[in-house]
Amino acid sequence: MGMYEDDGLTAGARGRSLWEEEPARTRRMPDPVRDSAVRAVLIVAVTLTVATVTFFLVVTGSWLALPMSLCAIAGTVVATWGVLDVLITRQMWNQRYGVVSEPSRTARGRRRERRRGRREARPEPRGGAGRIPRGGAEAAGPRPAAWPPPGADRR
Fold this sequence. Notes:
Blueprint: H1 31-60, H2 65-96, H3 105-121, H4 136-139
Helix pairs in contact: 1-2
């Protein structure tokens, strides 16, 4: 077998795979934000290309320098709009579907301590130590059924 075969092992290091999945460092951008970011990158790339071509046309003294420079100026305005669109779309997404607030471990512990303190400060119920009275359910008779029997009247 060669060094990089489909068995996932290299010749030098046994047990180590050639392709290793790594967890993503950051979460994926939401679709509208990603769409506007791709659009902005394409617009900026085209604008930079037009500006470079315009520079070379100005250096060579071509008659196309004037129309290309006007296109480069318009492209700069559109590219600025595209970048602002990314920022605005991202802010809008964060405001609509913002960060889900989850309490930290320390907040959970504090809340647990407060609950325990309130529970201890509560007066004892009349029936005894527990909240559910023991032995009282059997003396009261059978529990009523949650659903009517199969032949019952269904009014």
